[in-house]
Amino acid sequence: MSFVSTYTRPRVFAAAVLGSLVVGAGLGVLARTSGADWLTEVLDQIGTIFTTLLQIAVIPLVFAAIVVGITSLRKLGGGRTAARLGSKTVLWFAITSFIASLIGIAIGKLFDPGVGGLGPGVAATAKNADKAAKSVSDWGSWDAFIDGLLPQNFFSAFAEGNTLQVLFLAVLIGAAAYSLGDKAKPFVDFTNSVFEIIQRYLGWIVRLAPIGIIGLIGAAVSNYGDALFRPLFSTTLAVYVGCLLVLFVVYPILLQFVARVSPLTFFAKAGTAIQFAFASQSSSATLPLTRQSAVNLGVDPGYAAFATPLASATKMDGCAAVFPAIGAIFIANLSGVSLGFGQYVGIVVVAVIGALATAGTTGWLTALTLTTAFIGLDAKQVALGLALIYSVNPIMDMMRTATNVAGQIVVPAVVARSEGLLDDEVLHAHTSRPAHNDDGTAPATA
Questions:
Q1: Are 89 and 413 in contact (CB under 8 A)?
Q2: Which of 103, 78, 48 is nearest to 216 (CA)?
Q3: Distances (CA, A) of 380 to 97, 132, 134, 142, 347
Q4: Cα(first)–Cα(last) distance of the chain, in Å?
Q5: pLDDT digits over 129-155, tens only?
């Protein structure tokens, strides 16, 4: 057995990912305590290269996956079937976002992060303060969100890397291709080939995850140490607890009693996708694994091809529901503001209807700024809170993204069961977790 074959086995890969967390933290501590700036720079560069390699694929992946997904619905029936599946999928997105946001509020109130301030001498770096101020300026209102939804032209959306605009265009073009039927077949075939190429590319990048996470964690620990992590520990812990409740309580209940899928089977077959999401901090980059996990759970491949790409861009319970609730409470506590019942309702409303804003690699940021704007928190205080959160964001984002991806597999399973599109024979087959073959592709269902 070759090294590559052994390395990409789920258990070996999972051990490599977990080991990289420890190694990264250890190197970060070493760099900070020894004053080895060169080591910090190397770690930062490794992390940057890894995230850049992932982000390269995000825009073409979102477009191709959405177009292919919409046109694949033709295999499941006519327009009414497609409309019903789409409506049910979006409805379940909203239901799970509603539940997750309530959990976020409850955990936020329990931990009360930021209450009493963060202590003397605790301040964000100038770099993070500038980033936060720009973020509030760019995304701090619903007007800015709506304005940013429509591209100036087809090519500008791709050239500027605006995921939200690309998603909007993909839905329109996918619907047009669906309506044209066989006339659009050459375009659909080409787009499907593009999607397969991107999957192959991501299959190669997946293998670099342990190296990338060493850089990401090492740089975070070295740059910030515990100067900000300790004051923000309650905020970070609250995010982890909230996400873990969604991941290991809410989802298993839905799986067991609505989808009639054993939670143990779910985690056995979706484990690799969740682990890679944790390491990569990218739902979009995890999409090939997410899609294959859904298929391995018995979800009809045609429906999975539609639901998982849509979910990867708009269904994010970690980033758009749990985190904004806790983040808003944190910023309110820093500001000395006591949130009222109406503002808590506002947090839930944004989580349910604002999931589209999470499209892209900074969905957490957009979701939080839109939430705080909706409930009326002061923009300067929001910028301060964001600047502080930036310091520990890589650590938070791992748990948020893992929760996102798990939900992106759960909802298709729930809808597929209700529509008779879940194959119990495939569900109960001894299918391995979706790793990658030697050629970089996801393996077929056993």
A1: no
A2: 48
A3: 28, 10, 11, 17, 19
A4: 20
A5: 566 666 565 555 556 666 667 787 888
